[in-house]
Specification:
The structure is a homotrimer of 171-residue chains. The first copy, chain A, has 171 residues and is of the alpha+beta class. Chain A is built from three helices and six strands. At the B-C interface, α1, β3, β4 and β5 of B face α1, β3, β4 and β5 of C.
Amino acid sequence: MLAEAQPPAAAAATSSLQQLHFEIERLNSDYARILDDERFEEFPDLFVDDCLYRVVPRENHLLGLPIAAIHCESKGMIKDRVYAARESTMAEPRTLRHFITNLRILEAGGEEIRAEANVLLVQTMINRMTEIVLSGFYLDRIVRSDGRFLFKERLCVYDSLLLPTSLIAPV
Amino acid sequence: MLAEAQPPAAAAATSSLQQLHFEIERLNSDYARILDDERFEEFPDLFVDDCLYRVVPRENHLLGLPIAAIHCESKGMIKDRVYAARESTMAEPRTLRHFITNLRILEAGGEEIRAEANVLLVQTMINRMTEIVLSGFYLDRIVRSDGRFLFKERLCVYDSLLLPTSLIAPV
Amino acid sequence: MLAEAQPPAAAAATSSLQQLHFEIERLNSDYARILDDERFEEFPDLFVDDCLYRVVPRENHLLGLPIAAIHCESKGMIKDRVYAARESTMAEPRTLRHFITNLRILEAGGEEIRAEANVLLVQTMINRMTEIVLSGFYLDRIVRSDGRFLFKERLCVYDSLLLPTSLIAPV
């Protein structure tokens, strides 16, 4: 088997990276599931207290422009945001579903892990077929806190210039 | 590397869960591939004899309502279903493709594994662009049988209230 | 835990396959990211010199017909192709995003690995919502070269009979 051709040190590094990859995937899947189930009250607990959560169009991200669809500079601001989302989505029911794929660990040597992953978000409204809300990618700084991984920073960079109307809830 | 900060027992548990995760992902990918290739005759063999396979709208699932788009209470009923699918899809050709992502193992301690995963199903009909059929999630009870994993129960909970016309084939 | 019920030899084989799976997933994610970021100049380096890269409609693939949307028989031809893509996409800006899921290792015993995975490609054009370009699957022959995995052969088999207009760039 080709995998066995690796020298032991390289194999150990791969194994460790593999475990990290597995755990970050689990974090992403928990993230998706909490949002898809509209368990918004659990959403802030995916972040550390001193965090950054932003949802920005790709164009602005590439150009370094500050405008964001969602901008939260702390866990407290995220709590405010999901409270607003809870109120709003009751008015216009829809089901959102996240597909987070192709996770890449960019850096894992130090105190924090830098990672990215693609995201496809679709929504289903009553009496409508399922449609794409947005595609994009997450750009993350993740830290270990009390034995679990949490977001220190999550940027959701979406490909459209149009603001999807459903961007009331976190993405 | 952060992954090495785990105590040995926790690391062993992670490794074991990781392996399980890998094998359930493989089951899901086999499942997707069998349906996408329309190898319907192989589909029932993904289930144990005494099984439950249901395709239900999310609304009904949440409210506990019994109505289902597909309801099979045994491997025999699944065989009947795929026979019907084989006949029907010959009349109106389309290609279906499954994207099963964000697998989560919910419980793995006992005789069976409980897991869930998001699913996006798209279809391509002749002279039409590819379009979304449904989004939703699988809710599974999986058992090990003769060295491989099989479904004891698979619920496909889809987000729409509308019945997609292509729900003749299993999802 | 069910995963521990495996005999040691089977567990070792699973572990080795698991590692291989992890590395091929990483290759696919690198592939997706390079194309999504339009870093076309890095794209040929995902292939060995003597390679085959084809993008073909599923119908042609199943019937063994030779016509392809993209056909490159060497790394040099891939370089030509991405040069053309670079020129063309400047004229009509769009953002593409790949979702590569449900990887399956088909064969891993010998010099090369055979694998497949589903792919969903979406695009976002200025002032338009995100839409599906194509669904399909990759069929790969992968080799290890200088410690990393590279494509010896990548077929992208897409489900539509229609030629998507955006098939200027590699898929």
